[in-house]
UniProtKB/TrEMBL annotation:
Molecular-function annotations in GO: DNA-binding transcription activator activity, RNA polymerase II-specific
Organism: Lithohypha guttulata
Domain of life according to the entry: Eukaryota
InterPro entries for this protein: Sterol_Uptake_Regulator (IPR053157)
Name of the protein: Uncharacterized protein
Length: 253
């Protein structure tokens, strides 16, 4: 219940800008209290609490993501570190709750989960410029191990764009689960390269930002996509402009 109240307060902090700080403080306090109970539940998951744990993990991920971008400070490095923390959180939750996926598909969430799964399995994307990223990775002065990790990461990103292509147009902007899909499955080694601020890792992140930009009307996303693309461009400098051409063109549309 406290996580639901926390998410509600977070939503109000976005939609009622004149009381932004008031509601955000309440959201943060409620989230801290909810997280304490959540951690104890994760230690003893069973059929009586797995559905609640799954729903809470979804709200918790949404909260952390929203805080990362919509309550960011002026330092891009801080935002990037917060995003890496969000990725780590989501991957950890996936490991714990993933063992219960079959059960969840037969629970009261079955219609929601099956509908999401079916949408994610259709669609062939015709806009994702993976050939640009392949040229970037092929020509980069990096180790073979890093090149392999980048290609795995790009493949996962391609799957995300294909999932998006399978959605009816009205659903694209509101498909919140798509926000987290790539953050969860991107290789841990990619997160380490991103943490090191490797240019290739940041360029790949700018392509993910296009997915966020497509969901800019969703209250928890807002300008996160365009912000990421612009901040990455500023961080890397003009030498990397050519590799940011596609994300920038998408953010301008």
């Amino acid at each position: 219940m406290k996580q639901i109240l926390s998410t509600s307060a977070l939503h109000l902090s976005i939609t009622r800008s004149e009381q932004r700080n008031f509601y955000h403080q309440h959201a943060t306090q409620l989230q801290s209290e909810a997280a304490a109970g959540y951690n104890s539940i994760l230690e003893k998951l069973d059929e009586s609490n797995i559905v609640a744990a799954f729903l809470m993990s979804s709200l918790l991920g949404l909260h952390v993501f929203c805080d990362t971008f919509l309550f960011r400070d002026a330092d891009f490095s801080h935002t990037l570190d917060a995003l890496l923390g969000c990725m780590s959180l989501l991957r950890g939750v996936r490991v714990v709750i993933g063992n219960w996926w079959t059960y969840l598909l037969s629970s009261e969430l079955d219609v929601i989960l099956m509908d999401a799964t079916s949408k994610h399995q259709r669609g062939i994307d015709n806009t994702f410029r993976n050939e640009d990223l392949e040229r970037l990775i092929s020509g980069a002065d990096i180790s073979d191990a890093s090149r392999k990790i980048y290609r795995e990461t790009i493949d996962e990103l391609g799957h995300l764009f294909a999932m998006e292509a399978g959605l009816p147009e009205p659903e694209v902007g509101q498909s919140a689960n798509m926000i987290f899909a790539w953050l969860v499955v991107a290789p841990q080694e990619y997160a380490e390269l991103l943490s090191a601020r490797r240019p290739e890792a940041l360029i790949i992140l700018s392509y993910y930002a296009v997915v966020l930009h497509h969901r800019r009307s969703f209250w928890a996303v807002g300008d996160a996509g365009k912000y990421l693309i612009d901040a990455i461009g500023t961080h890397l400098g003009r030498h990397w402009d050519a590799w940011l051409a596609w994300p920038r063109s998408m953010a301008a549309s």
